[in-house]
Amino acid sequence: MMYLQRIFNDRANIRWWHIALIFCFVILAFVIGILVCIAPPELPIVVVILPFIAVTFYFKPWVLLPVFILVTMVVPDFKISDLMTFLAFLFLFFRAYIGRQISFQNLTPIKIKLQVFLFVVIVSVLLSVFYFKNPIPFIYRDGRNFLYWFWIPVILILLASKPSLAIKYLVRVFVAIGLMVATAAIVQSVTGLQISGVGRVGDLENTSGIVSGVTRVQMPGFLFVLFSLVWVAVNLKLNKLSWVYALPLFLILGAGLIVNFGRALWFWSAFALALSIVFIDKKHRAGYMIFGVLAVVVAFGGAVFFKPTAVDNILERVSSVKDEGGRGTSYGWRQWENQDAMVKLLASPVVGIGVGGEFRPWLRTLVAFEEHTRYVHNSYLFIALKIGVPGVLVLLLIFFKSWRGVINVLKFAGNKSNENAIIIASVLPAGLGLAITQPELMSSPGVTFFALLISLSILIPICASTVEQEDSAKMKVRT
């Protein structure tokens, strides 16, 4: 940075910099002009706002991060999302390098496992190109999701030079995204207008048929809503959040989850809330459970008051699970999909069928979903099919190492009120449970969520260990 300042302050270089800046602007204008002609209409906009993104990331990275991640999740063209994310990684690396804030120490707990996982992915991509000879567009469509695992080293190496501050900011990122997603879902449900470039907004479909008048909102980011809901509940019961703030936050987040009408999402959200009770001090558990009951009563009471038909359809969605299983049902389609995928995986369990590989022929009955030849709802089967069973096992080891770290923090009596450790210990298993029926680990929004969650789970033990060392040092001084 001092070197750049000396160049700008040296008057002998002013004329050179004028020429260089003019040349850069000419090149930028030329590139934008080409993009306007050949690229999607959103891409030139991204290029124009890149300087703003770079400056904001340089000075206030944590302020921009939640908005940036949300935009990459809902932008209509995934290629723009990938470009923006890749450039963000470069900007953050440049910022950390200039400020000498690069720290590899935070990555130590999962360093080897993460390196092995990324190595398996790279080998799988090479096999896909040169051995399986999968179509390049398919390789890109499947492989692009692995890019977002790099949020782990970006957070831990480039943004977490001060772990305690990084934890505080990361939690704010989760909650900010959760609230924005929940609010966007409610607005889309009420208006019927789709403002997210990804997902679907339309009439709810139950086993009894299409329900007019009840809108279902499917969009990325509901895992952030799940996290935020647990955050509100845990902080409220630990007296770290007032009822004045908790009640409206809970209603917004709860309504956001409801309008999704995803039964698996509802189940695993309830599971996370219930699991958090296990990690809370006994003296807080009774109040926590009372709060949960009252919250459900208030939520259903509000739904009955504002839209009585919504409650009927919620109950039908829950009760219709027993009717699932036929080819025309949600579970039936997944069962059929898993059977076809398992046949291919059993034939090649070590390397799978390669990134971008197809596991079933084109089916006329699924013509509306063009990716059905490569897409699997079960995240673990999806990953195993693309990069092999070893890749899945290494990824699960990373998750287990992260979860065990926060559990170890909670084992110490003084850390029972560590709300962030409680939240991670509850949300991580719930998110992985949701991945059984949803491709959260093979979609860029889901991978982003889990990458940030792993980063947070690695930082919490580091920060707790630092606090313990400081406390023990104080005790030695006193004695």
Describe, in short, the structure shown:
The chain is mainly alpha-helical and 479 residues long.
Structural notes for this entry:
The chain has 479 residues and is mostly helical. The chain has two domains: 16-102, no CATH class; 115-471, no CATH class. Helix content is 71%, strand content 4%. The protein contains 19 helices and two strands. The protein has a two-stranded antiparallel sheet with strand order 1-2. β1 (200-206) and β2 (209-218) form a beta hairpin. α17 (389-411) packs antiparallel against α18 (419-434). The two termini are 46 Å apart.
What does the secondary structure layout of this molecule look like, with pairings?
Layout: H1 2-9, H2 14-38, H3 42-59, H4 61-74, H5 78-98, H6 111-130, H7 136-143, H8 151-159, H9 163-191, E1 200-206, E2 209-218, H10 222-237, H11 243-260, H12 263-279, H13 282-306, H14 308-319, H15 330-347, H16 379-387, H17 389-411, H18 419-434, H19 444-478
**How far apart are the termini?**
46 Å
Rg calc: 24 Å
Q: Let me know the number of strands.
A: 2
Number of domains: 2
The main sheet orders its strands as: 1-2
Biggest sheet character: 2 strands, antiparallel
Helix content: over 70%
Structural class of the secondary elements?
mainly alpha
Structure annotation, total helices? 19
Mean pLDDT, to the nearest integer, reads 80
Strand residue content:
under 5%
Shape: globular
Weakly predicted, low-confidence segments: 1-14
H and E string: HHHHHHHHHEEHHHHHHHHHH
